[in-house]
Design a protein that fits this description.
Alpha-D-Glucose-1,6-Bisphosphate, Chain A, domain 4, seven-stranded antiparallel beta sheet, 4 helices, 7 strands, about 30% helix, globular
């Protein structure tokens, strides 16, 4: 299954990292300043993507505190017939927490040009660096405490 994967090691316990995934206000600090999300399994979300043009919406598929957040992922108005998926996992390490962000399911979106979409997400992952934003927030919060 084709995937776009990015990981970062954050020098903080999973509980401290999870704080930044556990509320709408926290997600607004690093995912999107306008995200509206009902953080429960089956809850809906919607936000304007980092390109400031594409609205993304879906539902919470899985929510395991301090472990993972999985969302269905649909680009509105892009001809997608079915959603892809975003999975954010937290794994404890000796140094803190390994955070991995995975976009997958592009082959099932219902567009014949889905490989181009996969390539766009690869470029976007490097351009927007959302995991670096998360790492900076966790580090800054630790300094303030």
């Amino acid at each position: 299954m084709p995937q776009v994967i990015r990981s970062i090691e954050i020098k903080a316990a999973p509980s401290k990292v999870w704080h930044w995934l556990a509320t709408q206000a926290a997600l607004r600090r690093w995912i999107s300043s306008n995200i509206e999300i009902d953080l429960r399994v089956g809850g809906a979300y919607r936000f304007l993507g980092p390109d400031d043009q594409t609205w993304v919406s879906g539902t919470v598929i899985e929510l395991e505190p301090e472990r993972n957040l999985s969302l269905s992922w649909l680009e509105e108005g892009s001809g997608w017939l079915h959603p892809a998926r975003l999975v954010i996992t937290l794994v404890p390490t000796d140094a803190g927490t390994r955070v991995t962000l995975i976009h997958d399911g592009f082959e099932g979106i219902g567009r014949p040009d889905w490989p181009d979409t996969l390539e766009d997400y690869e470029r976007g992952a490097d351009l927007h660096r959302v995991l670096d934003k998360l790492g900076d927030l966790v580090s800054a919060a630790d300094v303030q405490q």
